Structures are given as structure tokens and as C-alpha cells.
Structure prediction request, 56 residues.
Amino acid sequence: MVSYELGELSSSLKGAKAQFNINNIADTKYVASCAGDSACFYGVGRTVTMTVNYAW
Prediction:
């Protein structure tokens, strides 16, 4: 997780925060769960999200 207070760029952005997340950065294949002997499920691949929050 990387986050940045946008108010550092400009005083008009005070209270704004941007956050960037990457899960499973290597996009590794893995078995997340199995239901019995023959039904297994892979886990989620790489996901990238960015959020911007503002508090006033």
C-alpha cells in the first residue's frame, strides 16, 4: 500500500488522500480452497486498486 496526502501538492487539496494497492503482485497461481477430493479453486490473481478520499 502506498498513500499520499494530496494537500502536500496544493493547499486547495488539503484533506484529500490518494492510495494505491496491489495484491498478489507476482500474479502467483495458488489453490485457495478445495471442496472434497476433486473440486479445488484457484485464488484471485493480481488486483490493482486506487482510491481517493477527501475529509472536510
